[in-house]
Amino acid sequence: MLAYIVWSVYQSIRLVTQNEMTTLDLSVLPSPERKYIIQKSMFMYVYNMLFQKTFVSLSHIIDTKYAQYKEKELQETQRLLLLKESTVPSFLFYIPFINIIGL
């Protein structure tokens, strides 16, 4: 918490004096779904190391899980595209509980 306060004060002073801010490159951080895939892969890797006879590398497990995730996401998108249009007028979707009645 103290580091955040120091960082905020430093950025405020820098913004006032030099009219610029430091930006952080967050592209190196994995996305939430990638973190989830890595966590599931780690569990599978540890299970394979402890209880299985064959060795499977962690990178192979992560790649396989990520490919499965992308395939599932594509199937879900295709399934949603095949759904028929709603019979409820679109402006009623913004009124609470009207959209639930239309189901």
Question: Can you put this structure into words, describing what you see?
Answer:
The protein is mainly α. Helix content is 63%, strand content 0%. It has 4 helices and no strands. The protein has helices at residues 2-18, 32-51, 58-81, 98-101. It is flat and about 55 Å long.
Topology:
Blueprint: H1 2-18, H2 32-51, H3 58-81, H4 98-101
Helix pairs in contact: 2-3
Short synopsis of the structure:
With 103 residues, the chain is mainly α.
| Backbone CA Rg | 24 Å
Spatial separation of the terminal alpha carbons: 46 Å
For the secondary structure, the number of strands is 0
Q: How many H/I helices?
A: 4
The fraction of residues assigned to DSSP E strands is: under 5%
The helix content is 55-70%
Sheet with the most strands, sense and barrel status: none
Mean pLDDT: 86
Which terms summarize this structure?
103 residues
